[in-house]
């Protein structure tokens, strides 16, 4: 197989891989498809060609050697733009249940999952897990109560997402209470 074709197949492998791909994985894939042995030296030559190609300013991505493998990543000049998109998308994907759970944690932190569930009245396993994955909350430690349950607090990423310098900037609950949520007549 000509080197040019090999390089294009390697480029396709790197492009389609969600994580970094090792030289050994590239060798295995090419050998399986073309039933012809490929050496690591050939792979490194192709990787150098690909790296050189993407070093041109006309490309917004570059080939990066990361975690003993290779991956296409956005060049540093575009990190802020891509970060804004990621922030926007991650904000949009919080469910109503996750937002309720996040609000409870923000106002009552540090708080255990049992306390969250007592306030919400439903199981909150999924919401807590989702918020941990999105790094909007973090584990602060364990409570000094029987069973030593985990304590949850908001993270620095939470503060960044909501544009807060400190928790005192959260809206006061009395400021966001609606009349339709009250029972009985209001005293004057």
Automatic annotation (TrEMBL):
The lineage of its organism: Bacteria, Pseudomonadati, Bacteroidota, Sphingobacteriia, Sphingobacteriales. The keyword RNA-binding does not apply. It comes from Pedobacter mendelii. Keywords: Cell cycle, Cell division, Chromosome partition, Cytoplasm. This is Segregation and condensation protein B. InterPro entries: ScpB_csome_segregation, WH-like_DNA-bd_sf, WH_DNA-bd_sf. Signal peptide: none annotated.
């Amino acid at each position: 197989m000509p080197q040019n074709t090999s390089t294009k197949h390697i480029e396709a492998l790197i492009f389609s891989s969600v994580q970094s791909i090792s030289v050994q994985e590239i060798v295995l894939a090419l050998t399986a498809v073309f039933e012809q042995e490929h050496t690591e030296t050939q792979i490194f030559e192709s990787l150098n060609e690909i790296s050189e190609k993407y070093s041109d300013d006309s490309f917004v991505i570059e080939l990066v050697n990361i975690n003993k493998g290779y991956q296409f990543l956005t060049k540093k000049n575009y990190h802020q733009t891509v970060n804004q998109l990621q922030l926007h998308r991650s904000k949009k994907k919080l469910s109503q249940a996750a937002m309720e759970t996040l609000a409870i944690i923000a106002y009552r932190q540090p708080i255990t999952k049992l306390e969250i569930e007592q306030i919400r009245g439903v199981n909150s396993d999924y919401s807590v897990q989702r918020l941990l994955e999105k790094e909007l909350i973090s584990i602060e430690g364990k409570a000094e109560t029987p069973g030593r349950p985990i304590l949850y607090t908001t993270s620095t990423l939470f503060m960044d997402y909501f544009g807060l310098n400190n928790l005192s900037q959260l809206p006061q609950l009395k400021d966001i209470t609606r009349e339709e949520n009250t029972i009985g007549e209001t005293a004057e």
